[in-house]
Design goal:
elongated; 2 domains; alpha+beta; 5 strands; single chain; two-stranded antiparallel sheet; 13% strand; three-stranded antiparallel sheet; 272 residues
Length: 272
């Protein structure tokens, strides 16, 4: 109702025809009286809706320098950002992410990240405490020097707790990212074809995507491409399977601002 009344007021204020202005104002007043809405409130509401937003860059803290597992935390945030049309650059230390996007989209990313990070850490803690990872082994390359020659051997070694935790969290973040991407695709498939002004909606989304790409190109100071967390301690299939299961069960809540999805953007995360 605020939008309807505000729209009538806007028409009344923008026309040069006195009769039209009076008619629009009278209609707005009738609706306002019937709904007990102040005209000033309706006018402020429509002005706020029409105020054009612009992309921004926001620094998102990930963790203190030296904290173990920051790369998997970054992986989780970047996965969330990809489903919310937010582009990310990553600090070399993985301590913070430079998020580029529209304010409401970045807000959605931060809210989701705060919830999912707690779930990821809690689930990985429970997995480690269960001791389930101890029954698995990981393949490692052992380098030996024999008679002046360098010889490499592949051996099976017990999975260390840190290896299991990193693999678990990597799989969790990857699964959450896929879930969000699927929801985004489903919502876009439903919203665009069914919208009464479908072509207009598609054009608006495309324009917003181009505006974000232009903003990112102008503001990003990244010098490389972030390639995600790379664990040098080995691969644990069991830990990744457990992390994937936890990612499937994670509560995403109402999801990010997917109904307002603004077109799929490649979220290039950089500077690791």
């Amino acid at each position: 109702m605020l939008t309807r009344i505000g729209g009538l007021l806007r028409k009344a204020e923008s026309t040069d025809n006195e009769h039209e202005a009076e008619a629009f104002l009278s209609a707005a007043q009738r609706l306002a009286t019937k709904s007990a809405i102040d005209l000033a409130v309706a006018r402020a509401h429509i002005a706020g809706r029409e105020r054009r937003q612009a992309p921004v860059q926001r620094v998102v803290p990930i963790g203190a320098p030296g904290k173990r597992g920051l790369r998997t935390y970054v992986q989780l945030f970047v996965a969330i950002a990809a489903a919310n049309d937010v582009r990310c650059d990553v600090a070399r230390t993985s301590t913070q992410v430079y998020a580029h996007g529209f304010g409401s989209d970045i807000d959605a990313c931060e809210a989701l990240y705060a919830s999912l990070l707690v779930q990821m850490v809690r689930a990985s803690d429970q997995y480690i405490k269960s001791g389930a990872y101890r029954s698995a082994t990981v393949e490692k390359v052992v380098v030996e020097q024999r008679l002046g020659r360098r010889i490499e051997r592949r051996v099976q070694a017990p999975v260390a707790g840190v290896t299991a935790r990193l693999n678990f969290q990597m799989a969790f973040a990857a699964r959450v990212g896929r879930r969000l991407a699927e929801v985004k695709a489903e919502v876009e498939a439903e919203v665009l074809p069914d919208a009464a002004d479908g072509p207009g909606v598609a054009l608006a989304l495309r324009d917003k995507e181009l505006e974000l790409v232009d903003f990112y190109t102008r503001t990003s100071q990244a010098r490389g491409t972030w390639r995600g967390p790379q664990t040098s301690t080995g691969h644990s299939a069991a830990a990744r399977a457990a992390g994937d299961r936890a990612g499937r069960a994670a509560r995403i809540g109402a999801s990010p601002e997917l109904p307002a999805a603004h077109g799929q953007l490649s979220s290039s995360a950089t500077d690791e």
